[in-house]
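Incident review: delayed structure delivery

Summary: a single-chain prediction request sat in the queue longer than the usual turnaround. Root cause was a stuck worker, restarted by the on-call engineer. No data loss occurred. The affected request and its eventual output are reproduced below so the record is complete for anyone auditing the incident later.

Affected input:
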Amino acid sequence: MAEKEHTGKAKGSFRTSVFARLRYYFLAGILVTAPIAITIYLTLAFLKFVDEKVSAIIPVEYYLPTAVPGLGVIIAVFFFIFMGWLARNYLGQILIRISEYFVDKMPVIRTVYGWIKQVFEMVMGGQSKAFRQVVLFQYPRPCIWTIGFIAGPPHGEIQSALQDGEVQTVFLPTAPSPTNGIILFIPARDLRILKMTVDEAFKIILSGGILTSPEAADPTKGIKP
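Output delivered after worker restart:
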């Protein structure tokens, strides 16, 4: 009788172990495959979107026997390279000044154009330090810390109105949409500059604080067989 009970427990334990391992492999397979599949899907969707937009302007199907995936992206890259080269030439500078002259005569459009131009020059300019440093600071009250990005020192009236030593403009992004956030003007002495890159900081924000270390990037970590 004791032997039968022991045998039954052994069989039950074996079945539990098998199902536990199958469950582990199933969840690990999802965690490993899902990011790759989603990345491939989004990449193909982006290529298709750009191809459709470029094909509407340049009907490449008239010149090629078949559609080439990603051709629109290649054309767009060469277009921007050409425009950048043209903007560095004397003729390009004249064309830009003429176009900006006409835009400056339009009441609403000139405001939007000026704002967009300043943002792009600040973020993408070679001399810009905007969003290149990650900082910790206390918000919304002392002893509660959050992460943000230095956008540079404030200028104009804001700088003259702040009589608190060196002040930095800090962008506090919100999850899950880091393009939205809050602009804060914080004394430099209250900021703790981190060594992590902007990409690493965005990973922390987008993951809701889950990816706080390199070890956390392992998709199978924490799943027990």
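Verification: The chain has three domains: 18-70, 71-124, 134-211.
Action items: add queue-age alerting; document worker restart procedure.
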